[in-house]
Design brief:
Elements lengths: L6 E4 L5 H12 L3 E6 L2 H11 L4 E5 L6 H14 L4 E4 L14 H29 L2 E5 L12 H25 L2 E7 L5 H9 L23 H12 L10 E4 L18
Helix pairs in contact: 1-7, 3-4, 4-5
Length: about 260
């Protein structure tokens, strides 16, 4: 039990990577605060885990008061806080033509500002337990896809925040801050998003080697397995680090000109 008796807030944990992290954390002995926007989906995860090991809080991270409320939920339910996973994010298509100020501010509010506010609200309690923060970023933080402009900007900001606070908070408060940058992950949302872009219902079953050398893309549970290391005491004094979780190098790799092989 690598997370025995630890209390962990996991934002965006009603689906996808966040849900996988929550389930794995409980398997490793933790108690979790589930969060999301979908009450029905959240209740399903809560039922799967059990109310003695989890509590659900539905709220919009774009509202500044949500950060403090989530911390209070953790303290009321379990009496302490050991870790925070900033996973929730708006994954929305945009480019230079259709990204205006209001849209960019909306994406940044959830993907970059909310994690900072959550860290700030959690910090007094994390310093007591010598806890840690794990930010879930994206390989798009390094440059991003052309149609993911606002999202990529927000993840680039999150990565800089991780490196900054990973040094400052560990030195001052003993609180580690690290980040994992997942590549292409087969979440429920991603399956639906690609279908909305015109791909078939089974697009993920036949991908070019360029995108999936293994023959498939990453599963959420594989991201969750990596998250456990950073959340556990096994991580030791490592802080301010960002780790890519993708099956091919991000630098020196050129995408094929013809992407029609993705169906």
């Amino acid at each position: 039990m690598r997370l025995q008796d630890k209390v962990i807030i996991i934002t965006g944990s009603t689906t996808g990577i966040g849900k996988a992290i929550a389930l794995r954390c409980v398997e490793e002995g933790a108690k979790v605060v589930l969060h999301g926007l979908e009450e029905e989906l959240g209740q399903e995860v809560l039922t799967e885990i059990g109310p003695e090991k989890a509590v659900l809080y539905i709220a919009d991270l774009a509202k500044e008061e949500t950060a403090g409320q989530l911390v209070e939920v953790a303290l009321k339910a379990f009496g302490k806080l050991d870790a925070l996973v900033n996973n929730a994010a708006m994954v929305v298509s945009s480019n230079i033509e259709d990204t205006d100020g209001a849209f960019l501010h909306k994406v940044l509010a959830v993907n970059t500002v909310a994690p900072l506010l959550l860290i700030k609200a959690a910090l007094p309690h994390l310093s007591e337990t010598k806890g840690n923060v794990l930010n879930i970023g994206s390989v798009n933080a390094w440059s991003g896809e052309p149609n993911l402009l606002a999202y990529s900007i927000s993840k680039g900001g999150l990565m800089t925040m991780t490196r900054n606070l990973g040094d400052a908070l560990f030195r001052d408060k003993g609180v580690r801050v690290n980040q994992i940058n997942p590549g292409w992950v087969l979440t429920e949302t991603e399956i639906k998003r690609k279908q909305e872009h015109g791909l078939s219902e089974t697009w993920y079953k036949s991908l070019p080697d360029m995108y999936a050398p293994s023959g498939r893309i990453i599963w959420p549970k594989e991201i969750a397995a990596a998250a456990v290391f950073w959340l556990s005491d096994e991580c030791g004094p490592i802080s301010g680090q960002v780790m890519e979780l993708e099956q091919h190098p991000m630098i020196g790799r050129n995408a094929p000109k013809d992407t029609s092989t993705i169906k």
